[in-house]
Amino acid sequence: MEKFHEKLKVLRKKKGLTQKSLSNMLNISQGAYAQWENGKREPNFEKLSMLACIFDVSIDFLLSEYLEISKETYLKLKEEKKNLFSVRLKELRLQHGFSQEELAEQIGIKRNTYSDWENGKCKPNYEKLEKIADFLGVSLDWLFGRE
C-alpha cells in the first residue's frame, strides 16, 4: 500500500522535478515540502489541488492508498462502472432525504427525466451534471467513479 507521502515522492521523480523546483511551483519552502514527502505534515486543500494539477492526477488518487487488483476484478469493476453514475446518484439522493421529484425540481428538470438518469437509461448534460454535483456537494469525478 502506498501512502500519500510515498506517492508524492514517486510522482515528483517521474516528472523529473527536484523538491526545490516543486516547492517553488507551490510557493512554499523546500523544507515544508520535504516534510510532506517524509510524512510529517500534509498540504492544505489548495496545495493538494495544485499537486493534482501538476501531476495530472485526481485528489482521490493522491489521498487513497493504492491496492493492486487482479485483471478479472479490474474487468468486473470496469463493467460495473458503466452504471456507477446511476447508483451513486440514487445513493446521494437517498442520503440527502430527497424524493426523485424533489431533487428533479431542485435541478430544474422533470421527474421522469431524473428517473431515467437513476435507471441508467441516459445521462444528463454537463450543465445538469454541474448542478447535481454542486447541489449534493460532490465532485464530478466521484459521481462517475473516477480516481
TrEMBL record:
InterPro entries: Cro/C1-type_HTH, Lambda_DNA-bd_dom_sf. It comes from Streptococcus taonis. Residues 8-62, 89-143 form the HTH cro/C1-type domain. PANTHER family: HTH-TYPE TRANSCRIPTIONAL REGULATOR XRE (PTHR46558:SF11), TRACRIPTIONAL REGULATORY PROTEIN-RELATED-RELATED (PTHR46558). SMART domains: HTH_XRE (SM00530). The keyword DNA-binding applies. Keywords: DNA-binding. This is Helix-turn-helix transcriptional regulator.
